[in-house]
Amino acid sequence: MVDVPTPQSTVVAAPDPHVQRYLAHARFEKRLAARTLTLYTLDLERLAQLAAGVDVPLLQLQTAHIRRFVAQMHSGGRSGRGIALILSGWRGFFTWAGRQGLIAHNPVQDVRAPKAPKPLPKALGVDDAVRLAEFDHAGADPWLEARDAAIVELLYGCGLRVGELVGLDAVPNAETQRQGRGWIDLQAGEAHVFGKGSKRRSVPVGAAAVAALQAWLGLRATPFAAGALDAALFVGQRGARFTAQSIWLRLRQRSQQAGLTTPVHPHMLRHSFASHLLQSSGDLRAVQELLGHANITTTQVYTRLDFQHLAKVYDAAHPRARRK
């Protein structure tokens, strides 16, 4: 069994023989990696200490005890993810004990770790987003410049997912719809895309994006011989449909050229679209429809971004918020 160092400040009781048997089982029969075995050992040592603290033998612990231990770890600063990993180790031990006939019920079975707070989506400030959208790379290849500018306008101006963007065709036809691809109706100023779950939605295309697309479509076929160009709206220099990875790389490069301190990726522009629209309109339901979210709770994360924006305005402008 792997030797695990014990902190000098912690008094550890003699190892439980059942834990030793389980760890031997995990090592020799399940063939767990040494690192995993070390973590299991530490987790079970922690469990033994907690059980000793409530004066209950390890195999007599009940679900109420486990919930209490979870609350103690959480209040002590342990993250939800960390607690989930610990519970996984404990659950494995009690599952083994049940198979050995040592316990009648697994006390960890129905215990879940506290939910970790979802990280806020990263969005650009309005000034940075507009700066990127209006950036004109002087001296760049006009073909590449027109394509990349149109890509930025659609991502930020329409809030498209990168998968929806690469799925757009230049000219819609029966094959376009059969394959679940989208297209742009410049005359109507609409983008028709197929999002998650093959759900189709229409998104308004603003005047700036329409102008950028017209400039791109005027140059798109220029370098290619007849029949050598893919049906895709956005293509690479060999005429094939542009990939999501290529868009990530081009967008990152373009944001650096525009002087932004934050490397920009496609989903950041989608977040920026949603956040800036919500700041201006306050219409959560409309933002949900434009983003193509099936559940409004997914869209509600942007209200947290909006609150952060309002809090910054308050801190900067309100007399009672200023620190002397």
Automatic annotation (TrEMBL):
Domain Tyr recombinase: 119-315
Active-site residues, as the UniProt record annotates them: 161, 196, 267, 270, 293, 302 (o-(3'-phospho-dna)-tyrosine intermediate)
One Pfam family cited in the UniProt record for this chain: Phage_integrase
Keyword set includes Manganese: no
Record-linked InterPro entries: CB (IPR044068), DNA_brk_join_enz (IPR011010), Integrase-like_cat_sf (IPR013762), Integrase_catalytic (IPR002104), Integrase_recombinase_N (IPR010998), Integrase_SAM-like_N (IPR004107), Tyrosine_recombinase_XerC/XerD (IPR023009), Tyrosine_recombinase_XerCD (IPR050090)
GO cellular component: cytoplasm
An annotated GO BP: chromosome segregation
Subcellular location: Cytoplasm
Core-binding (CB) domain ranges (all copies): 13-98
Keywords recorded for this protein, A-Z: Cell cycle, Cell division, Chromosome partition, Cytoplasm, DNA integration, DNA recombination, DNA-binding
Major localisation: cytoplasm
GO MF annotations, alphabetized: DNA binding; tyrosine-based site-specific recombinase activity
Tagged with keyword Cell cycle: yes
Subunit structure, as described in the record: Forms a cyclic heterotetrameric complex composed of two molecules of XerC and two molecules of XerD.
Described function: Site-specific tyrosine recombinase, which acts by catalyzing the cutting and rejoining of the recombining DNA molecules. The XerC-XerD complex is essential to convert dimers of the bacterial chromosome into monomers to permit their segregation at cell division. It also contributes to the segregational stability of plasmids.
Protein family according to the UniProt entry: Belongs to the 'phage' integrase family. XerC subfamily.
Protein name: Tyrosine recombinase XerC
Organism this protein belongs to: Acidovorax carolinensis
